[in-house]
Amino acid sequence: MTELSQTANIQPIELTTLIDFFRSKAESKTPSTAKSYIKAIQSLSSYCRSKNFTIFSKSLPSDWLIFLWANGTTYKTALLYTDILASLSKEAVSDGLLSEVDLESIATLRSRLRAEGERLWMEPITDAALERVLTLLRLAHRQQKDVSKATDILLLALLEGGVSPVKIASSLTRDTISSYKERHQGQSGEAIKEIGERNQNPRRKYIFDLDQSRKTPAQIEREVNRLFSELGKQRNIPIIADADSTVKAIWSMLALRVGASPATILARFGKVPASMPILSLIEKNDRVEETSLQELVNATILDNPKKWFAMKLRPHVSLEEVESRMDIFAREITRPSEIFYPHEEIAKRIGKKLVFRQRPFIADVAFIRSRQTDILPLFAKIGDLAWCYTVSGKPGSPYAAISPIEFNRFQIAIGRFSPDIDPRPLNTITPNPGEPVILISGPFQGREAIVEEAIPETTDSPTIIYRLKIVADNGIEWRVKTDARQLRPSGKTA
Q1: Can you tell me the distance from the alpha carbon of 268 to that of 432, in angstroms, rounded to the nearest whole number?
Q2: Beta bridge partners of 163
Q3: In 3-state terms, what secondary structure has residue 208?
């Protein structure tokens, strides 16, 4: 082994260096060969950018393959890409960019993919079917009879992180459901409370009416599987083998949607679920972080609302470049409904003139409003220009939505507001001309002023703009325009 190869065993490989090497080798191939090589490298590069990976790791090739599987890439194409990766990796070892251990790991992955064939590439549930499942779960309160019972068992099993629906149905009682509710906050806790209220009966110990006291565990399992089978037929959703496999498949697909790593999903179940053979490509890792994953999946199940995320621009990249890229891929991604890039106005005297220019409060951070499930596809296309903050702060972790309370506080502090934020307390009296007010944010925060004029709302300005007179401590008067959300009555008389 060369000295460079020995170094590669010790020092992590920068992905940009490795991918640049792959690209140069691909471009040196014959035109017919280079085309497929370049496509494979672009796919790998896009995946790494979407997760903000910077270092080559042993798990990266298998994670990429599972990403391809989850996004509808055919088995034949994935196999071709794996062959290309193995070929390029062999050349990288010769140049000291990868170790023999790395090459052996990729070769093993390639062999397993070939040996398992199409069976490994089986998709348990399509995107369209998953959407039907989510629609059903969000309308659980409207279902009737056995469909209602099966839907509630499925919903509760998913909210609990993909646990066995048979276990839930056979053991959940009026006494134990309180412990389920205590483990969850907000929407999840409320959903579990409603499930209990819909199904419990004061004359029955168990929440779900399956005649548990008179049936054996095997009989209860058959009844739950029957309920799921009927649910699948009546609501056109796939049931994979049995109720337990179905729950694990649905939960796993949702976890991948919100950006969870395959290793995290495997760690959740402790072994490869029968309905997700693709997870057998990765190695079990007991130290995987699972921070907030269950809450993210639950939010997607119950609502999947639009939330604010912080987007970090890469060095020397402008927001205009990012937006231009979004326009290019408009048909392949769901563009953020809003982009918030707050600026402050800076005054500078040039000669006898006072020149104003805008400066962003945080030059390399913009805020985007999107659904959690739209973030991963978005950054797969723009990841070379910007990346999104994650839950743990580490690459590969699920993307972190900003708390509405914290985002509200941030906007009040800087005195700039996105259209969906209105931090004014209820019943605030609208100040009239001549009345004293206090500025609660912005550069004049804490200053008292007198309202001179109220400028009505317009399409460009969704709240009233006030022209104020501020008298500084040195007696100099300032006249400024301020958003109504930056003011409150001072409580004094003019």
Answers
A1: 59
A2: none
A3: coil
Residues whose CB falls within 8 Å of the CB of residue 385, separated by 6 or more in sequence, listed in order: 313, 314, 317, 321, 322, 325
Q: DSSP letters of 453-476?
A: EEEPP-SS-SS-EEEEEEE-TTS-
Give mean pLDDT, residues 192-205: 90
The answer to which of 60-64, 217-221, 405-409, 467-471 has the lowest mean pLDDT is: 467-471
High-pLDDT (> 70) share of the chain, % = 80
How many other CB atoms are there within 10 angstroms of residue 309's CB atom? 23
Task: List the structure tokens of 460.
Answer: 């460009």
Task: For the chain, state the CA radius of gyration.
Answer: 28
Q: How far apart are CA 397 and CA 304, in angstroms?
A: 18
Q: What is the mean pLDDT of residues 128-137?
A: 92
Cα 61 versus chain centre, distance: 21
Q: Residue 438 forms beta bridges with which residues? A: 448, 488
Angle 312-313-319 (CA atoms, 0-180°, nearest 5)? Answer: 120
Q: Two tokens at 320?
A: 């205009």
Q: Is the pLDDT of residue 168 over 50?
A: yes
**Statement: residue 356 has pLDDT above 70:** no
Alpha helices in 202-343 (DSSP H): 217-235, 243-257, 262-269, 293-302, 319-328
Neighbouring C-beta atoms of residue 75, cutoff 10 Å: 17
Contact 265/255 with Cβ under 8 angstroms?
A: yes
Please give the span between the terminal C-alpha atoms of the chain, in angstroms, as a whole number.
Answer: 85
Instruction: Please report which confidence band the pLDDT of residue 7 belongs to, taking 50, 70 and 90 as the band edges.
Output: very low
Left, alpha or beta for 459 (phi > 0: left; psi -120 to 50: alpha)? alpha
Residue 431 near residue 437, CB atoms below 8 Å: yes
Any idea of the CA torsion for 164, 165, 170, 174, to the nearest 10 degrees? 110
